[in-house]
Design goal:
This protein is an alpha+beta fold and 114 residues long. Helix content is 58%, strand content 12%. It has 5 helices and 3 strands; from the N terminus they run H-H-E-H-H-E-E-H.
């Protein structure tokens, strides 16, 4: 999977920065839902829900489809692939740095108490 552009990557993280949007992601991870279904448990108005969903869609996290008067949202396939890859790369770099530190520390002779 190709890493998204820096601007798109920023939008993905910004989309997930809000607790309302994370709740929508948690709900959509269980399956598609209409705007009305997503708005029901939220304690914000429908315009705010639509704004949050638009931000998630612009961030590449969800996609929507309108059939008649009903707009349904679902998770974007592989939505978190780029984020997972970025995290795995940071973890690998961190482990490499700790391995280097451990190797250097092993080279230092221990001082003995007299």
């Amino acid at each position: 999977m190709r890493e998204p552009s820096p601007a798109r990557f920023d939008r993905m993280f910004q989309a997930l920065a809000d607790p309302y949007r994370r709740r929508f992601v948690e709900q959509l991870a269980k399956g598609p839902a209409s705007v009305t279904e997503l708005a029901a448990p939220a304690d914000v108005g429908l315009p705010a829900v639509l704004k949050h969903l638009r931000i998630l869609e612009e961030g590449g996290i969800v996609v929507s489809e309108k059939v008649g008067r009903v707009r349904t949202y679902r998770m974007q396939e592989h939505a978190f692939g780029a984020i997972n890859g970025w995290i795995e790369q940071r973890q690998a770099e961190m482990h490499t740095a700790f391995d280097r530190l451990a190797a250097l520390m092993a080279e230092i002779p221990e001082e003995k108490d007299h």
